[in-house]
Amino acid sequence: MSLYIDFEPHSWYKGFAIRKVDDWHQNTGVTLWVGLVDNGNTYQVDEVTGRTLKELKKNITSYRSK
Prior knowledge:
Elements: E1 11-13, E2 16-23, H1 24-27, E3 30-39, E4 44-50, H2 53-64
Antiparallel strand pairs: 1-2, 2-3, 3-4
């Protein structure tokens, strides 16, 4: 199964398509970085988030080491 995403990612990191999302959760003004990856075990898209790009990459590394 291939990952289908409906946006052009800002970049890729360890297989995750990364994008910056402004005004997340009903226009609160919170900005999050989101990483999406195709989970080959369940055939679903897994999402990892972080408030900064550095935090997102740390969370992705933790996700990959599970």
